[in-house]
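Forwarding the complex inputs:
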Amino acid sequence: MQTSPSTLFARSVLASSFALLTSGLALAADKLVIEAGRVITRPGHEIKNGVIVIENGRITKVGAQGEVDKPWDATVIGGPQYVAFPGFVEAQTSRGLDRPNENIDVAPFLDIRDSIDPINFAYEDYLRHGVTTLNVQQGGNCVIGGRGMVVRPVGMTVDEMAVRTDYALKLSASPKAGKSAATQAMALRRAFEELRKRLEKQVQDKRDGKARDKREALFQGRELEGDKAKGRAMEGKGWRVDGLELVPRGELDEKDLQLLELVEGKRDAYVWCAAAMDVRKALDLAKENGFLERTTLVLAGDCWKAADVVAASGRPAILIPPLLHVETEPITGKEVETPVAKVFAEKGVKFAIASETGQASSLPSHHVLWYQAALAIGQGLPRERAIAAVTTVPAEILGLRDRVGSLEEGKDGNVLLLDGEPLSVRTHVQFVVIEGKTAYDRSKDIRLKHLLEGKEPPGTQAGAADFGAAGAGKADAKKDALKQDEAAERKAGEEQRKADEKQSSGPHFSDADAAGEERG
Amino acid sequence: MEKSTMNEALLGVLAFGLLCAPAGAADTNWLIKAKRVYTADREPIEDGWVQVGDGRIRAVSAVSPGGGFETLEVDAVTPGLIDLSVRIDLGFDSVEQSTETPARLEVENALDLWDPRFERELRSGVTSVLVSPPDRAVIGGWSVALKTGGPPTLERRRIAGRAALRAAIGDEPSDGNRPAFFQPDSFYNRRPTTRMGVEWVLRKAFHDALAARSDAARATSETQVYEEVLSGKAPLIVSASTTQDIRTACFLQREFKLPRLILDAAAEAWKDPPMVVASGASVVLPPLTFGGRGGNDFAFHSWNSAALLHERGLTIALSGHNALERGERLAAQPGLAMHAGLPFDAALAAVTINPARMIGIDGRVGSIAVGKDADLVLWDGKPFEPSSRIVGVLLEGELVLDPRTAK
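Prediction (whole assembly, two chains):
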């Protein structure tokens, strides 16, 4: 995967000319040395004055300054003022999509890669807040939503972003909009029953010597050679259709393949639960259909009430904010607050913390991963567990334990350089390195410049298209002019007030109108 | 439902409920030992002590004042937080809509003091709030400054009855009135229906009040209310989110020389700070986010607006709008403001002494000073960090959240 350090800037459609300027400055990225006053390799493990060596995208060495050989030809970034930290991992999100759900109830054949919008602001924001790996799944407003994808938040195309394609299926144990809990449960059961019936019919047709399925496959132009020409006995811990080996895999309906893989235990499932009552249904469904061992529960709302059930299932969970659950006690009318992450931690459930609300794609913007982890600490979750819940645990859930989540030899070179203690409001992500390449540099973050320094991005103002040294100079000149204006305005205001004090207290429409004209 | 988990949660709440109950003979004498005492109006004290007796702060010092009271030991103590835009009301039942200017009415008569949202504020560290009428009328009436806990009677909870006069500019006061265009479809159409109309109603109100000064025949009970604002006896708190609405408020200030103007939900004040500076107004910011939106009318609330306005010398207060999520509540707002560059001291002031001064209740609350109400927040870490916890809350010396039992 080739990512350019200019990707973030290029993503800002306004900044295309600037992107061309910076791509020439791209770091020689094959070998990168990151130095930091503190290197936090994983929760609870820290190296003072550490060095990380990244070669060809992978971490080759992590250790203390002086103990690690630094390649002579490597680019060096960082310094003693920084804290190096593993990139955050978002266990599941429905952000950055065209829309999070199809209106078809059962749509396992859909692939999120067709929905991902690489230039969506969400990915830029993920990068800004230090998320380097994220599992993009359909939203929870579905019965069976479709297949997700693990991506890195850099790249102008889905292929550039891809870490793991054709990934897990999203299912919902909670009612899709317009459904009741009962109809949702029925729709889920029926999806698997119908799969079973269709498979049985295909086996029967084969036994009866009918060639309809083969003709259909040929008509659709499906591949019927090699492995596709072979049948294979059905696997699966839940149920099996005898004789499926008679049907060449290429003759199976394409729309059935993903669900069949689920039943055969060959695909991960993320099951959305909005309420505690849905947890049992989710687990039963997974068990009946043989994919329990590949199930991750996505838990929102009052699912903490089912913490014992989740713990007994042994399955990992993804906790959806808000992580402080508030409900009205039905007898006293008082509000009951429950620290969700703390409850699951005490029950021994392995969980990741996610940053979004699950159902909707437009989100309250304080749903930022590090901020949610920090809030969980403030709600009684031990600090190391909170950090693990946004680094190592989601990496494990995504099956990427050997690649992301911590700073260890052999893993992807996904490193954050922070300017202070991780998870503090005073700390900012200064650099994000993804697979050995600088993907984000706060000093060049155009949107931040706009917000924090009043510097206009190029193209948003007449005459400011030549962003760069000259453009920056102009912005400074503008700022100075603004300051002068302000001083004059302040003085005028004071004089006005003094004058007002002297005058009698009648209304002065003419003054006000004149002031209105001045300000336009 | 899993019984054990539920029970734990219930226990926590019951404990809280019991502590909140108006216990007649509750202990209100404490000695608080903190690694840092953030006084809000003076320098913080390292390893300081706060002595609380009979509901008041008796001593603040770097050495133990003694007194034989029970000692509570925590990481940090700040004054109880103050929210001038708390938005706990009964909705339309809290604002009279038979006229655009029900200025004489007081929202305190339309409040439910048993509303659990007051308790939510209290356990989140907010001890004093300004409750205003909702913005469905142009001048909605008198706001009231209240404590969020204590016996649920107005007499006991009220800090200041007519603490500020509430007005609103923008869509909200005209929203729901009849259309601005085409034919009116009812005899009972309400005006105003546009921003121009809203401004006209406001100007007429103050113009009439000025006219009544020289012509007693024009004085009404309403002009008497406006006179209190014109004379600076009470502040005018105006909801104005967008730049155009903030301009309107500043022009009003200039035209009628309003001595005490507070801009509430002023999301876009950052766009033209000199104008706000010239008006002498102070600013209450709507809840901050990591992104950009906030306030009414889809206003753009730049996430560094608190820092920006502070740099320009404006007096700012932060607000939480009674958010349900902890990450958005008032106690989290200074943290979000700091993330975008506001210094700690300014962030602390923006939720304590600044709002107290804006509505003139700083004689009783807003800082840790001898003689003030013992409204205190006890923290287990650096205040306003999301990873810190409020482990204790004192309201007039009464321990409503107990750090000794907080797990």
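Chain A is about 35% helix and 20% strand.
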